[in-house]
Design goal:
It contains 16 helices and no strands.
């Protein structure tokens, strides 16, 4: 049985215990940031700055703000019910929705794993000359991360992620500050690759916002990580502690997204540098953003840091996605009369099968769909964007469903905010379909 919430969470606490409670809750929010600071930031945010200056920065920050409730409902649901959003889907909508969700997510998550792996391989190739092709390096990295994730579980993932996210965050903020004087702060510069009100800009915007700050499935992974942390600690964190942990990761991801746009605008756009189409070439350009602003000394340090953070992102998704599919499988196969799930995810055969299966599918994608790094990245982002209104709706209805006590449900403000996000994402998705396939 899952551990019950500690009575100390509902009783008045001494100051020291309050601080200890909030410190103990930290973890899933950092994992959120570690998973988010991947292709969306390193690739798409940098490319947006390189091609449009700061022209798309406002849209990126608006998307991060708009999506907040959809992501927050993940840790919120765990804090109120002690269960993940996957279990919430089952109790709110039934097994068929969980099964459909898992079937749709399997190819999508495999594509995202491939995208992160090839970006990480590109960074490796920009630091150390490699004779192997980027897809082959990506396969090696996937195998390494699978072994570490399966052996170390949540605790190892949490520790490694915190260390490298902090290192990259500090260096990225300093590099962005150094690039600020180089930026043309025109709201939408005339030197952008296409006019603001154009089909090309709209298509690019959808691709950039698809994983900004991340795919909404990260809300589900976040809820599973919160559940894993609670089980490791034997105590369920309350909503206030979950919110602080989540906000740290979410705001951090937003700040770093802006930093990469500023670096792309200041270093690449101002000099008319076109983003490279290959994974290694583009990764080398990202490293040059730091050396151009912080000095040559930073090349090796930041290059290694960027690589390790992308490696951490790969570790994170190779834990989170198989965890999500395993939880879906458990939920779908559990006996109807069993109120609680007693099977363990970490180290289980089902988790191993899901991890290996998704990895193999990602490897197939690496060797068959990687003709153009840029087109591949755009495809990943667009797919994530098109399914985002559906996932946002599921999260909203679950957080406000019968499994959540009336008094504990989200506020009217958060719910109105969530519906606004859902409507906006749906309209933009329909607009993209119209522009691409009908117009």
């Amino acid at each position: 049985m899952p551990p019950q919430e500690s009575s100390t969470l509902t009783a008045p606490l001494p100051a020291k215990s309050v601080y200890a409670k909030y410190l103990a809750a930290l973890g899933p929010g950092f994992l959120f940031a570690g998973a988010a600071i991947g292709t969306s930031h390193v690739v798409q945010s940098t490319r947006a700055g390189a091609e449009y200056g700061i022209g798309l920065l406002g849209f990126i920050l608006l998307a991060v703000l708009l999506k907040y409730p959809s992501f927050f409902f993940g840790p919120f649901y765990v804090s109120v019910t002690g269960k993940s959003l996957i279990e919430g889907y089952r109790q709110t909508f039934g097994k068929s929705v969980v099964a459909l969700f898992a079937l749709v997510q399997i190819p999508v998550t495999a594509i995202i794993i491939a995208a992160i792996a090839i970006t990480t391989a590109g960074l490796a190739g920009s630091i150390v000359p490699l004779s192997l092709s980027p897809p082959t390096v990506a396969v090696i990295l996937i195998a390494l991360c699978c072994a570490l994730t399966f052996a170390g579980g949540y605790k190892l993932l949490d520790w490694v992620n915190k260390v490298f996210v902090v290192i990259l965050s500090v260096t990225t903020v300093f590099a962005a500050l150094a690039a600020v004087p180089l930026v043309d702060w025109t709201l939408y510069p005339a030197t952008a690759v296409s006019p603001l009100w154009s089909t090309a800009t709209f298509i690019t915007l959808v691709a950039v916002l698809g994983l900004m700050p991340s795919d909404i499935t990260l809300a589900i992974m976040n809820s599973l990580w919160s559940e894993a942390r609670n089980k490791n600690q034997g105590v369920r964190s309350d909503t206030a502690a979950e919110k602080i942990d989540f906000n740290i990761g979410y705001i951090g991801a937003a700040v770093l997204a802006a930093c990469f746009v500023i670096m792309g605008a200041g270093v690449m756009h101002s000099q008319g540098i076109t983003p490279a189409d290959g994974a290694v070439g583009f990764a080398s350009q990202v490293i040059s953003l730091y050396t151009s602003t912080l000095g040559e000394w930073s090349g090796v340090v930041v290059g290694i840091s960027a690589f390790t953070v992308m490696l951490t992102t790969l570790l994170t998704v190779l834990d989170g996605f198989p965890r999500m599919i395993t939880a879906s499988y458990y939920t779908f196969t559990r006996v109807e009369n069993d109120a609680e799930e007693t099977r363990r995810i970490e180290g289980s055969r089902a988790f191993l099968v899901c991890m290996v299966g998704l990895s193999l599918l990602a490897i197939v994608i690496l060797y068959t769909l990687m003709g153009s790094f840029r087109l591949f990245m755009d495809f990943v982002m667009v797919v994530a964007f098109l399914i985002s209104p559906i996932l946002a709706t599921l999260n909203h209805l679950t957080a406000n469903g019968a499994t959540v006590p009336q008094a504990s449900r989200p506020s009217r403000l958060i719910n109105a905010w969530s519906w606004l996000a859902i409507a906006t994402l749906a309209l933009l998705s329909l607009g993209y379909i119209y522009v691409r396939f009908i117009m």
